Amino acid sequence: MRIILMGPPGVGKGTQAVTLESHLNVPHVSTGDIFRALLRTEDPIGIEVRKYLDHGLLVPDELTNQVVTTRFREQDVHKGFIFDGYPRNVFQAESFDKFLKEHNWTIDAVVNIAAPDEDIIKRLSGRRVCPTCGKTYHLESNKPKVDTLCDVDQTPLIQREDDKPETIKKRLAIYHDQTKPLIEYYSKQGLVITIDGTGTIEKTHDLTIKALGEIK
Ligand code: AMP
Ligand code: ZN
Fold it and tell me: Does ligand 1 come within 6 angstroms of the Cβ of 81?
C-alpha cells in the first residue's frame, strides 16, 4: 500500500504512522525525522536545514525533494510506504506525482487526520522528544514510564525547538496556507479519507484501519 498521511503539525501523524507501519507492513517515511536525524550528524545538509527546522519554516523544496529521492534509493519503500510530512505544498505534490508516474506507482489513499487549531496548540506544547532515538511522548496523553525519561534509552526528554509556543503558531499558519490546499489537490484525484483526529491515539488508529480496509 502507498499512503500519504496529512494533517496539521502535531495531530499525531508520526504516532499513527508507527502503528500503521507494523499493521500494513510497509515502511514509515517522515521527512521531518530524516531532517532531524541529519541535524544530529555533522552532515552539511544538517547545518543547512537547522535554520528552517528551528524556526518552524519549510525546508526549500529542492532540498526536500532531493532527500525524498535519496530515500527511494533504498529498496524497502518499493513495496509500499506511509509518507508523513511530505508532500507539504502543491509544488512538492506535483513533483511527487511526477516521480510516482515515472515508476508506474499510484497512491492508494491520502489519510487526512483532522483536528482544530486549539487541540493542536495543546498537543504540541505538551509534546516531548528523546534527543537520542527520536521517540516522541506527550506529558498528558502518552507519558514515558519513568518521570521524563525515554522508555527506550532513559535519556531525559526535551522539548523540540519548534514546539515552543511562538513557533507553533508559525507552523500552523504555514500549514493552513501551504499544506491544507493539498487536501483539495488530492480530493480531485479521489484519494482523500478524512479521519477525526481529536480522540485518543487508539481511537484514531481504529478509525484509520477501518477506513483503509474499506478502500482495499
Ligand atoms: P515534522 O516533523 O513533519 O513536523 O517536520 C519538522 C520540520 O521539518 C518542519 O517544520 C520543516 O522545517 C521540516 N520539514 C519536514 N517535512 C518537510 C517538507 N515536506 N517540506 C519542507 N520542510 C519539511
Ligand atoms: Zn530514546
Answer: no
Nearest residue to 6 (alpha-carbon basis) of 189, 213, 151:
189
Per-residue confidence in pLDDT tens, the chain, 216 aa: 999 999 999 898 998 999 999 999 999 999 999 999 998 888 888 899 998 998 889 999 999 999 999 999 999 999 999 999 999 999 999 999 999 999 999 999 999 999 999 999 988 999 999 999 989 999 988 899 998 999 999 999 999 888 998 899 999 999 999 999 999 999 999 999 999 999 988 999 999 999 999 875
- Domain extent, residue 22, equals 2-115+179-213
Q: Is the CB of 31 under 6 A from ligand 1?
A: yes
Name the 3-class secondary structure at 65.
helix
pTM, full prediction: 0.89
Nearest-CA residue for ligand 1 atom 11 is: 58
Cα distances from 15 to residues 12, 84, 152, in angstroms, run 5, 10, 16
Check which CATH number belongs to the domain holding 47 and give it. 3.40.50.300
Report if residue 172 sits inside a domain: no
Structural domain count of the chain? 1
